[in-house]
């Protein structure tokens, strides 16, 4: 698996490509997320459009990344799931845990809405 990082409106987008399986692939994701968190990059969008396959270790690493980011007060969302990855997330019922988006602009807007200050009138 390979990972490229870019920024858009304060959101770190990780463009992942290749199989997300046990071994170096999951270690790469774990280390990348850990590095982003250490640099206070807490809005993370994982673009999985070029990830054709994910095994149970890959699923575990996604859940671990989601939990780690959330504990640090951040947010992790998924973008462009391939059919196989989407099917695995639906079978495991994790599709309801993650915020999943079909296009990057919609995902970026969702992060912006989360970060916007809430004003209460009353």
Question: Overview of this structure, please?
Answer:
This protein has 122 residues and is of the alpha/beta class. It has one domain: STAS domain (Transcription Regulator spoIIAA, 2-Layer Sandwich). It is built from four helices and five strands, in the order E-E-H-E-H-E-H-E-H. 30% of the residues are buried.
Which parts are unreliable, with pLDDT below 50 for 5 consecutive residues or more?
none
Cα shape: globular
Question: What separation lies between the terminal Cα atoms?
Answer: 51 Å
- Counted up, domains total 1
Mean pLDDT: 92
Record field, number of beta strands = 5
Annotation keywords:
122 residues, Transcription Regulator spoIIAA, five-stranded mixed sheet, globular
List the helices and strands and how they pair.
Layout: E1 2-8, E2 11-17, H1 24-38, E3 43-50, H2 56-71, E4 75-79, H3 83-91, E5 99-101, H4 104-115
Parallel strand pairs: 2-3, 3-4, 4-5
Antiparallel strand pairs: 1-2
Helix pairs in contact: 1-2
Can you summarize this structure?
By secondary structure, the protein is of the alpha/beta class.
């Amino acid at each position: 698996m390979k990972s490229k990082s870019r920024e858009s409106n304060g959101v770190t987008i990780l463009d992942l490509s290749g199989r997300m399986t046990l071994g170096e692939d999951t270690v790469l994701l774990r280390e990348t997320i850990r590095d982003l968190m250490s640099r206070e990059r807490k809005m993370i969008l994982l673009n999985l459009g070029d990830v054709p396959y994910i095994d149970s270790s890959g699923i575990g690493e996604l859940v671990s990344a989601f939990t780690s980011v959330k504990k640090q007060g951040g947010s992790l969302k998924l973008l462009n799931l391939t059919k196989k990855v989407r099917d695995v997330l639906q079978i495991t019922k994790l599709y309801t845990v993650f915020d999943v988006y079909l296009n990057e602009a919609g995902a970026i807007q969702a992060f912006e809405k989360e970060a916007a200050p809430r004003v209460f009138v009353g």
